[in-house]
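Can't paste images in this forum, so I'm doing it all in text. The chain is below; anyone willing to post the predicted structure tokens underneath?
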Amino acid sequence: QVDGIRNTEDRQLFKDAMVKCGVPVLRGKTVTSFDGAKSTAAELGYPVIVRVAYTLGGKGGGVAHNEIELYEIVQRGISASMVGQVLIEEYVGDWKQIEYEVMRDNADNSVIVCNI
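Text version of the structure:
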């Protein structure tokens, strides 16, 4: 369904859904410009991770350790995003991250497609 795609690919809608379900999320903000990214990074402190909306496999995102890297990643990310949106979050590089892709049909059958 279109709403399902929108809610998982729009970084702010996804974050809002996780909060609504009681899932803890990292501190951060969605932005549509470098100025917004710069002010968010200043609030969070470097390094920050840039996650791009509406791209597969994290295309265009990355970790910024300073303002120069932030500029390059945000410009690339906004260009790669179908909606010109990136999420700037605190970076927790020493944490382990497990990502699952789940496919579900309208009869509520589901399968884990891959474990990244």
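The chain has a mean pLDDT of 86. The chain is about 35% helix and 25% strand.
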